[in-house]
Write a structure and sequence with these properties.
Layout: H1 11-27, H2 30-33, H3 37-48, H4 50-65, H5 69-77, H6 88-93, H7 104-110, H8 112-116, H9 122-140, H10 144-175, H11 183-217
Helix pairs in contact: 1-10, 5-10, 9-11, 10-11
Length: 219
Amino acid sequence: MNTLKTYWENELKWFIWAYLLFVIGVNNPELFNNPDVETLTKIFNLFTSAIISGVICSLAFVFDSLYTSALKDVLVFFRRSKVPGATVFTRIKNGKMKDVRFDTAKAFQKYESIISGIPLEEKLKGKYENAEWYKLYSKNRDVTAVLSVHRDSLLCRDLYITTISLAVLTGAMMAVRLLLFNWILLGYLLVMLILTNIAAHNKAHRFVNTVIAIDIAEY
């Protein structure tokens, strides 16, 4: 479990660095139009500086720490009750769980007792289903397939949250004129927000479905 968030040392760091390089390129196109040795050396020194690296990673970590898991779920799914684990058994009941790794009818048979206990009240329904799904996850959390897809789900979720943080920082710097207003930067952030949100949704559903698939395979 300690390796789940190793992406903070790899993928997320490079994601942030790529954006900073993009910002420099957009605001200083002359650096790349006529790159001489001196200019390239300055760019190289900038991005290989341990101090800059530490600032970037620390800033990203600080912003990530401001978000609770519940808030991250709201930002990704736009409503807490929409997380895949909160609707998993309802989807199995209605035959809307589409996954080639298991048969929906068999899933309904295995979880019939859970499905029959789903509360009618909307608020209680999501909590009940997520709690029951979490019990299945707890039994299989150390399975390699579950660990792998869980890491991917967390990565995509935090890429989306980091993009929000970058958008906030960019907007703030533009507002105080530390960064020139530029539609290209805003367009880039908007595209990344859409792509990372879609990825976060897909990976979250994959994670929930994988737990069900592993549990049914042992049935």
